[in-house]
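Action item from last meeting closed. Structure (49 res):
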């Protein structure tokens, strides 16, 4: 059975940023990964109810 995936349109705007240090990129990806994990847990809980 396939799951319906809701997609949210996103517009990325770097603004004035032309270069980003690798450490900043690592921090952003680490935090994004945590947000994805939280969303997965919440979705799992919601689907069990």
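Sequence:
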């Amino acid at each position: 059975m396939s799951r319906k995936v809701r997609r949210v349109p996103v517009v990325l705007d770097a603004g004035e940023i032309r270069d980003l240090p690798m450490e900043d990129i690592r921090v952003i990806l680490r935090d994004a990964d945590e947000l994805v994990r939280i969303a997965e847990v919440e979705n799992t809980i919601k689907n069990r109810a």
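Note appended to the action item: The mean pLDDT is 88.
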